[in-house]
Write a sequence for this structure.
């Protein structure tokens, strides 16, 4: 298990509700180091590009509208086994199915407004991190 990186976004529902600090605390306490972070807002077009892999899914239009509805906090995180461990920390996509104590179980309000994003592979973590951050913004 080499030290590696994943990518996350605190989504508009959690950012709007003032839960970014509490979520980042859980992330750091779980052993993740913040390599890069910022507050920004996606346009519908940029959200569409980020979620292009989901283009054929029924919820794509709504997802892009939701993800561009408010500010987000994208971040690159570092830890041993980062991708898998972060998916465990955030819990299932649908908060009703997320294990107790996970970020989504605590903060998500619906399957769409599910508080955080987590990359699903090392390859996608690298692509998604590069979508938001230059090498000079990573420490
Ligand atoms: P993420 O990629 O954001 O970490 P995930 O990998 O758990 O989430 P995906 O299947 O990649 O889930 O879906 C991407 C996002 O699309 C979800 O996080 C959620 O916001 C939204 N989404 C997924 N399924 C649905 C659905 N059935 N209805 C509405 N929105 C959905
Ligand atoms: Mg996903």
């Amino acid at each position: 298990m080499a030290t590696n990186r994943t990518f996350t976004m605190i989504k508009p529902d959690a950012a709007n509700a003032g839960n970014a600090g509490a979520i980042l605390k859980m992330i750091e306490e779980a052993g993740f180091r913040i390599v890069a972070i910022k507050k920004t807002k996606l346009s519908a077009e940029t959200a569409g590009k980020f979620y292009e892999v989901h283009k054929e899914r029924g919820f794509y239009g709504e997802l892009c509208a939701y993800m561009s509805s408010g500010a987000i906090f994208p971040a690159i995180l570092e830890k041993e086994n980062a991708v898998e461990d972060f998916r465990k920390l955030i819990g299932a996509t649908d908060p009703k199915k997320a294990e107790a104590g996970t970020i989504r179980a605590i903060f998500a309000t619906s399957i769409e407004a599910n508080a955080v994003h987590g990359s699903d592979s090392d390859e996608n973590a690298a692509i998604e991190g590069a979508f938001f951050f230059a090498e000079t913004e990573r420490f």
Q: What stands out?
A: Residues 4-137 form a domain with the Alpha-Beta Plaits fold (CATH 3.30.70.141). The pocket of magnesium ion (ligand 2) is lined by residues 120 (CB under 6 Å). The first strand starts at residue 3 and ends at 10. The chain has one domain: 4-137.
